[in-house]
Amino acid sequence: MPQLQAYATVTPYITKDSSEIRELMHPRVHGNRNQSLAEASLQPGSRTELHRHAQTEELYHITAGHGRMRLGDETFLVQPGDTVCISPGTPHCIEAVGDAPLKLLCCCSPAYDHADTELLQG
Question: What are 36's strand-pairing partners?
Fold first, then answer.
């Protein structure tokens, strides 16, 4: 299993929830087993689609910018240094607020899988 993933070699892509993602470590690519780690980027004024994951627990750790997080029925502001736990089955989305891009690390266990992402209305 590779133990080092150089950031510069990771090609970003747009995921099902409309965020730009860099998969920093994922079992399908790197051979690790139980989780994935990605960096998500959102441009000012953009947001992810409201969605949920049936199986996956996520941790969002904000590294740059400011955001407005919707988690279930709650909405709150997030900033660098904040970490949010998203339990399986919980509807959520995040919006970049302010003038700078919002960047966050997203840890998923089990590892992120498009098939476990259900887009929701609203």
Answer: 108
